Amino acid sequence: MLGSVLPFSPDLADRVSEYCEKHSKELPESLERHWEWTIRTWMDAEMMSSKLQGQWMIWMSQWMAPKRVLEVGTFTGFSALAWYEGTRATNAEIITLDVRGEVLNFTRKMFKELGVDDRIRVIEGPAASTLEHAEGQFDLIFLDADKHNYQLYMNRILERRLLSPHGVVFVDNVFARGLTMGNEFNPYIEKIRRPFWEANGETLRKLNKSFLDDPRIDTLILPLFDGVTQIKWKAGYLERQEAGAAKQ
Asked: What's the CA gap between 162 and 142, in Å, rounded?
């Protein structure tokens, strides 16, 4: 197969996702319950990652073995719980940022009830400001927040060297439900939601190009979920920066 994406209809795509979930290491029961609770409780539950993406998060963080994780965008905490589960071996510190007051209050309470607040720290407030004052480096960074600020967040991360030398940034939703590639790519979006995703598609189209042109990083966009971009430091970039600073 020379292509990278199979041409599934929405119904078949759901069935494929279900097949993948059932044939992958299952989610812990606590995450399964939390996912179902979010679906029942919050009208904007579509902001949450899928079950399969949660399984992917656990697998990736187990493989990467990060010691520090930074997440921009908390919502109800499903992804933070997945990072927690995947970093049991490294006992990683997980810092998650969000501004959503009502949802975040529930999330904090839930973290405490589940006993995961020993390693998950929630910081409430504008992410750009929090990133400006963040300390140390992170081995895994996950961006899943307001798309129009992704560029700002990424610049903060790179300028302040928050990404460790061998770390990876995962940028979520870079396909904007398919509309990043063009408005014709998804005729199934609800009419009331379409303007929102069309605007995000335009923003992310520019963002993906800017990532590709950035001399500091290497990027790889994968057709996973709603599009995931993986970002790492370009080979030799940090060393050249340090050598230049030493000559001054």
From this structure: 12
* Beta carbons within 8 Å of 56's beta carbon, 6+ residues apart: 224, 225
Q: Which amino acid is at 211?
A: F
Cα separation, 33 vs 39, whole angstroms: 10
Distance CA 136, CA 58 (A): 23
pLDDT tens-digit readout, 27-36: 999 999 999 9
Question: pTM for the full model?
Answer: 0.95
- Cα 107 to chain centroid distance, Å, stands at 17
DSSP string, 151-187: HHHHHHHHHTT-EEEEEEEEEE-TTGGGTTS-GGG-T
Each residue's pLDDT tens digit, 145-176: 999 999 999 999 999 999 999 999 999 999 99
